[in-house]
């Protein structure tokens, strides 16, 4: 079971003066249960990429295989794919449209053709999963705060019980508590439902703390693909592409520039603390 | 006289059900007293739904208090005779760059405010030029705003406010939708305006790192001010901030962890450079 991107090419404004390659021969494979972050500057092709994986955009050449099947093949059960791969857009709070929260969450499973009772059960479970209070279920989604709207949007996707969850900058606009909450939920979804998670982020600290693997996009090309720690060890290459790096790496980098010798490449807060503690204790003795 | 002063400002939203009957009342701003002096760089921190944006909308009379009073440069915002004086004193920049750009050329967009104020066209040209220079966007004067990045669009929005020659700019989560590079662009532009042109800045945000250079930080929770003071003092209360859904800068978080492990770092660290400097000093003096 896997997702394979096979030499995907995607162009905008084909056959006009503005023709522009958004993705250029992008290939990679994601195994079941992976926790993957896609990073890259604004305009590097990240969002286009996940919309292609999800079948929302069709590549100009190349294709995507989901569990061995070509999702762009004319015989492929495309509507079934919607239930298997969930995608949360960057500002999902603008996509709520039903009269009340519960109906909004029912929309997805309803379109899967499930029985009404099953639809409602799934919607209820999903709303519980995103920690929305019962009294909010019948409120208009437009009266909710930005953070609550995002929870409703996520519940709408979870109610379809997808195997893969893709999230485009899920923490944009969330406060620190909201961010922490979201990653806790993703961790739980992986553990309990064995879901594959692919998220886009500009926040390298949250990437470092959560993702196990990183794909780096630059000007429509996949330029790096590796374990989180390995990718972040390319300090100069990443900063050269205009990307940020985890704060822990930055702090250790300043220490190195000031003549403190260390070979460690910490990416998380705990790792940085461990290394600084080690340096301190080594000097004490 | 303070540029902005609020006296027990209270604002409520009414929650209605499908049929329009009142279901509840949400007190978004609850007896807030604050003062802002000319030339200050003020930050307002608060979690999603804390009331910080509702409060900010009182600073240029987009909202009027249900109870209490807001004075802007001496004018009571409830006094509609001075609405335009108030709106000219404090300009607002909002969250979504795409919702506040209206011109087909950058120049036209920036000129919109002063045109509506009846400024003479020769002076408008001058103001547009100066405003775009202040935010480092003069090169884009004759370009279409639609081709700009998020950070650039926000800088155009700031220029549009500057062209009205305000005394104060309120940035209502204006960096929330930007990538790190865009956030830095906007923040630098704003800090420069504050430093060079002495424009009062009120920055509303939930990015802790953005407020470390503020003169004063107000922390809002459930519509009330729960803390105020210089950033270092605010960030020394990591526990309280965490309880209300906020956090402290990464460097503060890491230095707290290190201190917990017995490493004698000094208090009040808020930036990466300070933390690294303090660690270097410590390691080199052992």
Describe this structure in words.
- Chain A contains eleven helices and ten strands.
- In chain A, 41% of the residues lie in helices and 22% in strands.
- Chain A is of the alpha/beta class and 285 residues long.
- In chain A, the strands form two sheets. A six-stranded mixed sheet of chain A has the order 6-7-8-3-9-10, with helices on both faces. In chain A, strands 2-1-4-5 form a four-stranded antiparallel sheet, with helices on one face.
- In chain A, helix 3 (101-111) crosses helix 4 (116-129) and helix 4 crosses helix 5.
- In chain A, a hairpin with a 2-residue loop joins strand 4 and strand 5 (69-70).
- The radius of gyration of chain A is 21 Å and the shape is globular.
- Chain A folds into two domains: 2-245, P-loop containing nucleotide triphosphate hydrolases (Rossmann fold, 3-Layer(aba) Sandwich), CATH 3.40.50.300; 246-285, no CATH class.
- Chain B has one domain: Rossmann fold, CATH 3.40.50.
- Chain B has a six-stranded mixed sheet with strand order 6-7-8-3-9-10. Chain B has a four-stranded antiparallel sheet with strand order 2-1-4-5.
- Chain B starts with a strand and ends with a helix.
- Chain B contains ten helices and ten strands.
- Chain B is an alpha/beta fold and 286 residues long.
- At the A-B interface, helix 5, helix 6, helix 10 and helix 11 of A face helix 6, helix 9 and helix 10 of B.
Describe the structure concisely for a colleague.
The complex is a heterodimer of chains A (285) and B (286). Chain A is α/β, with parallel strands linked by helices. Chain A has helices spanning 46-53, 78-84, 101-111, 116-129, 146-158, 176-193, 204-210, 228-232, 235-240, 247-257, 269-284, and strands spanning 2-12, 20-31, 35-39, 61-66, 69-70, 85-88, 164-168, 196-200, 213-218, 221-227.
């Amino acid at each position: 079971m896997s997702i394979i991107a096979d030499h995907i090419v995607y162009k905008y404004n084909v056959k006009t003066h503005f023709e522009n390659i958004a993705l250029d021969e992008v290939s990679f494979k994601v195994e079941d249960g992976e926790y993957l972050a896609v990073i890259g500057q604004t305009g590097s092709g990240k969002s286009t990429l996940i919309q292609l994986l999800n079948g929302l955009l069709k590549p100009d050449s190349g294709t995507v295989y989901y569990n061995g099947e070509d999702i762009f093949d004319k015989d492929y059960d495309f509507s079934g794919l919607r239930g298997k791969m969930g995608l949360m857009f960057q500002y999902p709070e603008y996509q709520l449209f039903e009269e009340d929260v519960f109906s909004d969450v029912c929309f997805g499973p309803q379109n899967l053709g499930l029985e009404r009772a099953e639809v409602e059960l799934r919607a209820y479970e999903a709303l519980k999963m995103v920690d929305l209070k019962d009294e909010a279920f019948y409120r208009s989604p437009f009266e909710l705060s930005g953070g609550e709207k995002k929870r409703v949007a996520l519940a709408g996707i979870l109610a379809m019980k997808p195997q893969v969850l893709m999230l485009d900058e899920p923490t944009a606009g969330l406060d620190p508590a909201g961010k922490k909450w979201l990653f806790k939920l993703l961790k739980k979804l992986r553990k309990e439902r064995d879901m594959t998670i692919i998220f886009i982020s500009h926040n390298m600290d949250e990437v470092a703390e959560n993702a196990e693997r990183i794909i780096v996009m630059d000007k429509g090309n996949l330029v790096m693909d590796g374990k989180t720690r390995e990718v972040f060890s390319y300090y100069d290459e990443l900063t050269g592409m205009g990307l940020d790096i985890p704060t822990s790496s930055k702090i250790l980098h300043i220490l190195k520039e000031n003549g403190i010798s260390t070979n460690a490449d910490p990416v998380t807060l705990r790792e940085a603390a461990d290394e600084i503690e080690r340096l301190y204790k080594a000097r004490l003795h | 006289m303070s540029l902005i002063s609020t006296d027990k400002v209270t604002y409520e939203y009414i929650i209605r059900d499908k049929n329009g009957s009142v279901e509840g009342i949400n007190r978004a701003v609850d007896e807030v007293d604050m003062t802002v002096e000319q030339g200050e760089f003020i930050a307002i921190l608060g979690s999603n739904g804390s009331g910080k944006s509702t409060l900010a909308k009182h600073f240029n009379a987009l909202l009027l208090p249900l109870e209490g009073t807001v004075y802007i440069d001496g004018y009571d915002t409830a006094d509609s005779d001075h609405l335009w004086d108030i709106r000219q004193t404090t300009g607002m920049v909002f969250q979504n760059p795409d919702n506040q750009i209206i011109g087909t050329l950058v120049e036209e967009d920036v000129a919109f405010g002063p045109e509506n104020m009846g400024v003479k066209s020769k002076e408008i040209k001058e103001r547009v030029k100066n405003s775009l220079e202040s935010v480092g966007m003069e090169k884009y004067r004759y370009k279409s705003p639609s081709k700009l990045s998020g950070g650039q669009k926000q800088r155009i929005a700031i220029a549009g406010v500057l062209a009205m020659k305000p005394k104060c700019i309120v940035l209502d989560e204006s960096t929330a939708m930007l990538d790190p590079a865009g956030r830095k662009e906007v923040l630098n532009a704003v800090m420069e305006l504050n430093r060079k042109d002495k424009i009062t800045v009120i920055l509303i945000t939930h990015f802790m790192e953005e407020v470390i250079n503020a003169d004063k930080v107000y922390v809002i929770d459930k519509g009330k001010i729960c803390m105020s003071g210089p950033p270092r003092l605010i960030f020394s209360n990591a526990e309280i901030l965490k309880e209300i859904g906020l956090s402290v800068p990464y460097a503060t978080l890491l230095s707290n962890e290190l201190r917990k492990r017995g490493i004698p770092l000094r208090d009040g660290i808020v930036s990466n450079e300070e933390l690294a400097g303090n660690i270097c000093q410590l390691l080199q003096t052992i």
